[in-house]
Amino acid sequence: MSHELLDLEEWMMVLNKMLKFHFNISEEIKAVVQAIRQEMKPELIPLAEDKANFGKLVKKAIREMWSLEYEVDELQAKFAESIGKLDLENLDVDFIEDMMLKSKPLQSVLHDIRERQKAKLDEIKKTYGEAIKDLEPMKVARPAKNELPAAPADAPPAGDKPAEPAPAAAPAPAPVAATA
C-alpha cells in the first residue's frame, strides 16, 4: 500500500482559492443588498440570505483548514520547547540522541494531523473544486488562534451534508427558520 503524503503547496493553493471564493461570495451579497436598498426589490432578500448561508459554510471550511494548521503550529512549538536553545558549539551525540527520542512521539502526532489535513483537502476539493478551480489564489494572513470568532450558533454541525454552490441568480424560496 503506497502512502500518499500531503502536498503542502496544494494545501496552500486550495486554502487561498477558498479565501478568494469566500471574498467573491461576500461581494455578491453586497451587490444583492445594494440592489435591495436602491431598487426596492425585497424579492431579492431570500437570495441574499441563501448566499449569506452558503458563505458561512465556505468560511467554516476555511476555519477547519486553519484549525489543522494551528495544531501543526502547536506541535512545532512543543518540539522547540522540548529541545531548548541549541548550543551549536557543544553539540554532542547524547544531545542529538535525546532530541531524536523526544521527536519520536511528536512524529506520530504530526502524521495524524497531516492525514486529517489530507482528508480535509480531499473533502474541500470534492465539494468546492469545480467552483474554485479557475480562481486566482487570494493570500490572507491567518489570524492568530485566539482572534478567530466563535462559530455562529446557527451554523450546521460538522457532520451535515457538504455545501453545494449557491445558484447564480435564480431567486430561491425563503429559508426555513433554524430550530435549536
How would you summarize what this structure contains?
The chain is mainly α and 180 residues long.
Task: Describe this protein's structure.
The protein is mainly alpha-helical. The longest helix is centred in the middle third of the chain and has 40 residues. The N and C termini lie far apart (44 Å).
| Separation of the first and last Cα atoms | 44 Å
* Number of alpha- plus pi-helical segments: 3
Class per helix and strand makeup: mainly alpha
Indicate the radius of gyration in whole angstroms: 22 Å
- How many β-strands, per DSSP? 0
Low-confidence stretches: 151-180
Q: What would the average pLDDT be, to the nearest integer? A: 79
The secondary-structure element order is HHH
Main sheet makeup: none
Shape: elongated
Helical content class: 55-70%
Beta strand %: under 5%
List the helices and strands and how they pair.
Layout: H1 8-39, H2 45-83, H3 93-132
Q: Main traits of this protein?
A:
single chain; 3 helices; 62% helix
